[in-house]
Write a structure and sequence with these properties.
8 helices, alpha/beta, Rossmann fold, seven-stranded parallel beta sheet, 7 strands
């Protein structure tokens, strides 16, 4: 069983978008997938509920319950955790103990980049991270790479001590997908294929590091 924690101390960074899209990918790939929703907003749970009628359904679990792991099905192959917004590493200790990898979504603005630094510093103090036993990676979210600001943000992210493993484009498709309980991997259109390609470096990184 592979457990991936999606975390950021900055609200609105795209945690739930990243968590649901990853969970959807695993489900479409035929893996029994669980999405642990620890965010008070419950958006990940609602996404799962909208998807419940599909063959590629994802099981939601309440991450606020400390015994959530007891509810994991025995055949669960992938677990994605959508952590609470605003949490620092100390607040995430139970999830960090179980995680095989941590993904940190970051919006490409000066305010968001600056706000993410304290969270990454808190992760660096986690023993498993410090010893290289818990890999951490960055995901640039809502990126406009054709702009000067977008390129500046990428340059800054690439200078940080954690690898930048994906750049997800700024797209209204994710808003629609959230409302439908769907993911980009549910579709074969050319538009969705371009979105799927954004995830390929991330998926390769997960395969290599977990």
């Amino acid at each position: 069983m592979q457990t991936i924690l999606v975390a950021s101390s900055k609200g609105g960074a795209g945690k739930t978008t990243l968590a649901t899209q990853l969970a959807g990918h695993f489900a479409v790939a035929g893996k029994a997938t669980v999405l642990v929703d620890a965010d008070p907003q419950g958006s990940a749970t609602r996404w799962c509920e909208r998807r419940a009628g599909l063959e590629t359904a994802v099981l939601p679990l309440d991450g606020h319950r400390r015994d959530y792991r007891r509810q994991l099905p025995k055949d669960a192959a992938r677990v994605v955790i959508d952590s609470p917004a605003g949490a620092m590493a100390d607040d995430l200790e139970p999830f960090l103990d179980e995680a095989d990898a941590v993904l940190v979504p970051v919006l490409p603005s000066a305010i968001d980049l600056e706000a993410t630094v304290p969270f990454l510093d808190s992760l660096a103090r986690v023993a498993r991270v410090r010893k290289g036993k818990l890999p951490v990676a960055l995901v640039a979210n809502r990126l406009k790479p054709w702009t000067a600001l977008g390129q500046q943000a990428l340059d800054q992210l690439r200078a940080w001590p954690y690898p930048l493993v994906a750049t997800l484009r700024d797209s209204q498709a994710y808003v629609l997908l959230a409302a439908l309980g769907r993911c980009v991997f549910d579709y074969r259109s050319e538009q969705m294929r371009s979105h799927q390609e954004d995830f390929e470096p991330l998926l390769r990184w997960l395969k290599k590091n977990t």
